[in-house]
User: Which sequence fits this backbone?
């Protein structure tokens, strides 16, 4: 308990300090967004002109109205809500098909990528595969509060248990005996099956509860495929297991409280990451805990700091526990119909065996005229799992860096669909001890086609 109280105090100081630099822009951002979201006066009040919610399709509503839709976990805009219970900037785009069916407000969102992947150097490999995600959400009034249901599935298991080639990536296993190295594991079929209930305490405050099997605890920034800055990049970050690897957790309970634009939440969850059986639902003791403080100082900014004690996250290292600390800052700007988002995140993993490593991520994406998307990601992380036990360099920590840049062109298509083609190129900065293994200047690339619900 003392450790948690100390951590919360430190996180509060960190968020307040980070927000100080953005505070001077708050009034300007607020005025601009309120003007952008203003609903035209139609000459009558809501009582005079009732709305028929049974046939309302929010996919055909102006973006300004869609961004005024209420959130599932509190009395703030739905655009603030990202993966799990995490927050993004209020000004974030609200993708997906939205509709009202009676008392239910629903959303369908997702994407599918067909990818050719070529990872360079002696440890590289090539593979053609697909990644995908489909999310279904619904919320409705219940008593004085709001009931929420969320489901998310993926067909990633079809690519095989060994996933896809990705230089410098580590974590999890394909067979329960050897770790995945230089490969990204597939996501499970069931990524989230969760229910929530939120209750307003006043116009400015409220509480919520969230349960998932699987779900996402209050730890880290929004998961990479739920950030606008990262969703169009088809490869996972190599900092994944320092920032957001708990986004699929088989058993989580979260309670939270928010006042205005500040929220404190805490979770208990199962620390073990998913095993190699990607189609099942796992169960186990809720043996881990986390706490997260989030702050949205203006409509353009989202900040968080979090701490988690994760018990035995890796199947092949059952005696290793991890204390994870993360901080992140997300900035989102609407630019006359275009959108630009940048995320900076830092994660620190300290094990009970005395090994501490850090990961840093900076990613950005800009969408122009709903047709052209340019994205990039820069990472630096300390990797100590690049060699199997018994090899000469096993267990040593190497500071590695990766830079990726890519582009997507979206063709004109149906209103709710974006069909595009794109590519990305990645380069690496490696210490001299790794050059014999990975080559002096390995280069990787991906070519992909995708369809996305908007």
Assistant:
């Amino acid at each position: 308990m003392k450790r948690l109280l100390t951590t919360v105090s430190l996180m509060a100081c960190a968020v307040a300090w980070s927000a100080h630099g953005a505070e001077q822009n708050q009034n300007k951002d607020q005025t601009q967004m309120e003007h952008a979201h203003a609903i035209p006066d139609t000459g009558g009040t809501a009582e005079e002109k009732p709305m028929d919610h049974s046939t309302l399709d929010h996919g055909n509503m102006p973006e300004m109205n869609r961004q005024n839709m209420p959130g599932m976990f509190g009395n703030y805009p739905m655009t603030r809500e990202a993966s799990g219970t995490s927050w993004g900037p209020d000004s974030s785009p609200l993708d997906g098909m939205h509709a009202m069916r009676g008392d239910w407000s629903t959303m369908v969102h997702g994407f599918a990528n067909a990818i050719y992947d070529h990872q360079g150097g002696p440890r590289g490999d090539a593979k053609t595969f697909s990644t995908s995600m489909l999310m279904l959400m619904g919320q409705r009034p219940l008593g004085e509060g709001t009931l929420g249901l969320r489901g998310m599935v993926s067909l990633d298991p079809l690519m095989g248990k060994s996933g896809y080639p990705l230089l410098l990536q580590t974590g999890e296993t394909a067979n329960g005996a050897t770790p995945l190295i230089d490969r990204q594991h597939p996501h499970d079929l069931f990524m989230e099956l969760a229910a929530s209930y939120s209750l307003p305490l006043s116009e400015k405050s409220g509480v919520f509860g969230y349960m998932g099997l699987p779900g996402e605890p209050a730890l880290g920034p929004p998961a990479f495929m739920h950030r606008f800055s990262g969703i169009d990049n088809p490869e996972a970050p190599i900092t994944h297991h320092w920032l957001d690897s708990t986004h699929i957790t088989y058993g989580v309970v979260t309670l939270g409280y928010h006042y205005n634009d500040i929220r404190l939440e805490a979770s208990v969850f199962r620390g073990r990451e998913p095993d190699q059986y990607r189609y099942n639902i796992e169960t186990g003791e809720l043996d881990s805990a986390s706490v997260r403080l989030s702050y949205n100082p203006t409509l353009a900014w989202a900040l968080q700091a979090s701490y988690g004690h994760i018990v035995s996250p890796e199947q092949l290292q059952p005696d290793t526990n991890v204390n994870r600390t993360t901080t992140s800052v997300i900035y989102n700007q609407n630019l006359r119909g275009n959108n630009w988002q940048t995320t900076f995140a830092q994660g620190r993993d300290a094990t009970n065996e005395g090994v501490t490593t850090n990961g840093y991520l900076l990613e950005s994406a800009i969408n122009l005229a709903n047709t052209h998307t340019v994205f990039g990601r820069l990472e630096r992380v300390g990797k100590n799992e690049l060699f199997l036990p018994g090899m000469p360099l096993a267990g040593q920590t190497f500071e590695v860096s990766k830079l990726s840049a890519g582009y997507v062109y979206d063709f004109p298509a149906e209103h709710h669909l974006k069909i595009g083609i794109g590519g990305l190129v990645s380069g690496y900065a490696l210490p001299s001890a790794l050059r014999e293994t990975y080559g002096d200047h390995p280069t990787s690339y991906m070519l992909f086609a995708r369809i996305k619900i908007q």
